[in-house]
Structure formats: C-alpha cells, structure tokens
Design brief:
Length: 118
C-alpha cells in the first residue's frame, strides 16, 4: 500500500497572505487559543479566512489545530489569524497554564486518609 500523497495546493501561500510573510502581531504561539466572534459577518473574507472562522465558531481551537485543519503552514496561518484579530473576528486567549504542584503536606494528608479508609 502506498502512502497517500496530499495534492499540491492550487493557490500559493503568498497569494493567501497577500504577499506578506509576517503577521501584524507577534503574540501567537502554537498553543494560543482562538475564539471566533459570533456577531461579525463573514462576507468579504477570503476563502481561507472564512474557513478559519467556521472552524473556530463552534468552540475554541489552537493555532496548531487550525493550521492542521487548513493544511497551511503555521506561518501562513498566523498571518491570517493576525488579520482576523485586527478586524475583530478572532479573539485569542493564552492556554491554561499547567497546574503547580500542591503543598506536599496536603497531599500527604490526603494519601494518609485514603490509606486509612482501605
């Protein structure tokens, strides 16, 4: 069985980004969470931006997830996201930080209580 080959893109990346290689903002990370505005129309958006909005409207996705769904390089996706942020179509949130370890004495007390019940 031969591996499936992704078809070549019909539109080059520089066309999708209007020739820009860098986003207007440098605040996007791979795990930045994207939330689409529900009240703004999609009219006037290019097909890639419209698809990005459709992906984010049911919930929130990360930059990496959106790039994967769009089958675009992350750098191109970041340019599109920055444009949508500038127009108010997308709001970003930092990912939820990892939980810090709890106080060791509390964990020991919980463990002792569990052992006492068994």
């Amino acid at each position: 069985m031969t591996p499936r080959r992704r078809p070549d893109r019909l539109v080059r990346s520089y066309v999708v980004t209007d020739g820009r290689a860098h986003p207007t903002r440098n605040t996007l990370d791979l795990v930045t969470v994207l939330i689409a505005a529900d009240d703004l129309p999609l009219a006037g958006l290019n097909p890639e931006k419209r698809r990005l909005m459709e992906l984010c409207r049911p919930g929130a996705l990360s930059v990496a997830e959106v790039a994967g769904h769009l089958a675009l390089p992350v750098s191109v996706t970041k340019v599109l996201i920055a444009d949508l942020m500038d127009s108010g179509h997308i709001v970003t949130r930092a990912p939820v930080p990892a939980a810090r370890p709890s106080d060791l004495t509390i964990l020991q007390e919980v463990l002792d209580a569990l052992r006492a019940r068994l």
